[in-house]
């Protein structure tokens, strides 16, 4: 069956392959080349990092999500012009708290979810509305421009329009318009509150230090439904090792983790991996996804807390292979206790 020039089989294959789209419509290589830099970047150490999963449920029904994408042009459609079903939207958002070696604590948000009504509910449940209002949350870090991580911007700005926002410099014009206040009727994406605070853009392939022991790297790649680039976090936790924290990991697990090993001080001692890994985002694990999971063994992570677009079938495989998977409570809409879900918290350090 053809869906706007792309067969459904290709589409599903693409979604499972990290959702990356080459400009010509083919597949990105799983490993991206970064310019060789002499030595390894030392971004210091922190005492601990605490992550509270505000919501990892990006969408309710993966097959419905694929159908909506297919009906609006398939994987190469522009996400701002896809006829998304608001009833199928949730949002991805995490609260991160870094403790420095001196014991100072810093909070920031990783992503701002999708459906504003839903985000309002989860912000209230987790006290994020209050933390934003009283400026406890220092900035909003957007991993990438995807609908489920960014379209819920209004809910954050409602409580603090002056908040500093950090985005990958690879954002499209629509993303900038959205920050200024815009409505995309077809996509049902609306932000009525212009952002008034500082906007920081992180360029690809550079290591940006957010705090001692906390760094960000932007990976430049084309991603499904015309998004470009994803930035991910690294924490160097004293006496534990390196903690990798992602939004969706569209750059692929090997690209992300190999970067840490090759380019970051502390990267030879990997401790934990948290977040969406985009292995089986909408259903069963295919052969390629299974291979990615198997190859993760070589990193020897001590803790794996992978939710969101990792997919429950991929987490099941990790459990089967005896990986140290951190379980959750399957509350507030998270469908399995196999992974850390909505309202669950983990401390590394
Ligand atoms: Fe996502
Ligand atoms: Fe994504």
Give the structure's gist in a few sentences.
This protein is α/β, with parallel strands linked by helices and 349 residues long. It is built from ten helices and 17 strands. The protein has one domain: Ribonuclease Z/Hydroxyacylglutathione hydrolase-like (Metallo-beta-lactamase, Chain A), CATH 3.60.15.
Describe the structure.
- With 349 residues, this protein is an alpha/beta fold.
- The chain has one domain (39-348): Ribonuclease Z/Hydroxyacylglutathione hydrolase-like (Metallo-beta-lactamase, Chain A, 4-Layer Sandwich).
- The chain is built from ten helices and 17 strands.
- The protein has a seven-stranded mixed sheet. Strands 11-12-13-14-15-16 form a six-stranded mixed sheet, covered by helices on one side.
- A hairpin with a 2-residue loop joins strand 11 and strand 12.
- The chain is globular and about 50 Å long.
- Mean pLDDT is 91; it is low at 1-8, 10-18 and 21-36.
- The structure holds fe (ii) ion (2 copies).
- One fe (ii) ion binds next to loops.
